[in-house]
Known about the structure:
Elements: E1 2-11, E2 17-27, E3 32-35, H1 42-46, E4 57-62, E5 65-66, H2 72-75, E6 79-82, H3 95-105, H4 110-124, H5 139-151, E7 157-161, H6 169-184, E8 188-192, H7 196-202, E9 205-210, E10 213-219, H8 220-223, H9 227-232, H10 239-246, H11 256-270
Parallel strand pairs: 3-8, 3-9, 6-7, 7-8
Antiparallel strand pairs: 1-2, 1-4, 4-5, 9-10
Keywords: ATP-binding, Cell membrane, Membrane, Nucleotide-binding, Translocase, Transport
Family: Belongs to the ABC transporter superfamily.
GO molecular function, one term: ATP binding
Amino acid sequence: MKIELKALEHVYSGSDKALDGVNLTLEGNEPVAIIGQNGAGKTTLVKHFNGILRPTGGEVLVDGVNINERSTAEWSKSVGYVFQNPDDQLFLESVRKEFEFGPRQIGMDDQTIGKRVDAIAELVGLTKKLDVHPFDLTPTEKKFCTIGAVIMMDPSVVIFDEPTCGQDRVGNTRLAHIIEQLKEQGKLCITISHDMKFVTANFSRVIVMCHGRVLLDGPSTDVFAQTDQLRRSFVTPPPVTRVAQGAGLKETVFSVPAFINAITQERNHRG
């Protein structure tokens, strides 16, 4: 699936432009991270991808179709959105019903729904919680319930808004696995995040937003090498990356093993 933004603008009532002429193309199955300070326009941007918000200027095309030509409910079949706050998305009496609701609305048959419930529950770690009321889940489980409910509809694009917020290490590991599974299934995963360690570990393409515009867009190693630009968006690279940059290493690294390897290579080169 291909999402094209052409000179996209969005103005909330009585405010400045939240998006100011964004040109962007997202396609394929390589996971994409969108980062930037609060108020940079990240959430406003992705809410245009399935019509939750409509452009006040410019265009949004999904596989060549203008976003305004279909309702948000219609777009949700192909572009799924997982809200930052699970309580904004959960409203039924059990996890199972949350999983079944969306697929039924789009006409998925009962046999397929049943198979998908089992598979998705395992993927998000809620196999033993299918008959539990969502509001009796832990905050982490609620988050995965909303993720499961969206993936149940089998969309081509899945958008995560701050999925690591409130997660522990186990939750982040599960989330990384889900992103990898979506990639293997040929789906495009777009994620907003303030967690730079998670971003650099799981996303090869990074888009940096600043004041409603795209400041940087490219491979994560290239983006995080541009420290002056990152400061403009108040983005701080992961600690090991900053240490490597402070040590003058030419290579942009995101892990301790990569840091050690880069030091070794520079020493060998000098020797």
